[in-house]
Amino acid sequence: MDTINEALKMFKLDNGMYPDTKEGLKALVLNPNIDKYPNYSNTGYIDSIPKDPWR
After folding, report:
1. 53: helix, coil or strand?
2. 4-22: per-residue pLDDT in tens?
3. 2-11: long-range contacts (C-beta < 8 A, 24 or more apart)?
């Protein structure tokens, strides 16, 4: 959870907003919209989406 939290903070810092619900956490791995997020990190914010430990 801490990793996702930090990745979301960095995403917002770079892009001025959080990814929307449709984009989801996948937006932390790959840029979902180059026009909407021109300041997106070249390396993404996390390598992959962690598995949900509750499932």
Report:
1. coil
2. 999 999 999 999 999 999 9
3. 3/46, 3/50, 4/28, 4/46, 4/50, 7/45, 7/46, 8/45, 10/41, 10/45, 11/40, 11/41, 11/45
How many whole angstroms separate alpha carbon 19 and alpha carbon 55? 23
Q: Which domains does the chain have, with CATH numbers?
A: 1-55 (3.30.700.10)
Map tokens 């070249």 to a residue: 42
Single pTM value for the model: 0.89
> pLDDT tens digits for 30-50?
999 999 999 999 999 999 998
